[in-house]
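Data card: per-record layout.
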Amino acid sequence: MATFLEIRDLHASVGEKEILKGVNLSIGPGEVHAIMGPNGSGKSTLSNIILGHPKYTVTSGDIKFKGESILPLPTDERARLGIFLSFQYPTALPGVTIGNFLKSILKAHRGKDTPVKEFKAELKSAMSLLDVPDSFIARYVNDGFSGGEKKKAEILQLSLLKPILSILDETDSGLDIDALRIVSEGITANRSKDRSILLITHYQRMLNYVIPDFIHVFADGRILETGGKELSLKLEEQGYDWILEKAGMK
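The structure for this 250-residue chain is written out next.
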């Protein structure tokens, strides 16, 4: 089966400090992959590098999307190819309403304005998935939002853009039980055989709602272990020490 995302022996640094130390990862169409691991292991760094954050320097290896290397491409071009990143800490945009913001990103993504009637229908459908009121659209993007509202706004963008590959960086952080369920249902609604998800999380609880095909344990800048849903349950029970010991890191 063809892959959407192919990462091979990826090494990357910030200044003189090496963060990624040989990452290998393949994500096929329709697959959901979860990355778990200790703080500071490089999980968020990996997501930023896939989208081309200028802070990081790729020193060796490659990232291919649908068979072509994306390393030479700037972030906006990677996004137009169909890669989406949901941030752990979304930025507030005072003065910019969610409605206008969503219209703008759709135009940038599709290369043309979406007819008003069509836009409203798509927006209403996405909002119903996330249980957000009509007043939400008139609010400024992430300005004064709770953690749950910020994450709902991110998944609202995801639902409208319909990216080929969604990278969700700790979308469960700061969510209460109800918000976690609603956001997770929104993510699950975006699963399809033609769209894939890379979910970065600390906690097994989100994986009760968004069931992954593969779980990868990330530590010291690389993937140390890969398994199925049962791996997350073992991590919840035993932590990461057994994996670190297995890799000779403890």
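Known properties of this structure: The helical segments are 43-50, 75-81, 98-110, 116-130, 147-161, 177-189, 229-238, 241-246. The domain at 5-91+167-246 is CATH 3.40.50.300 (Rossmann fold).

See the next section for split statistics.
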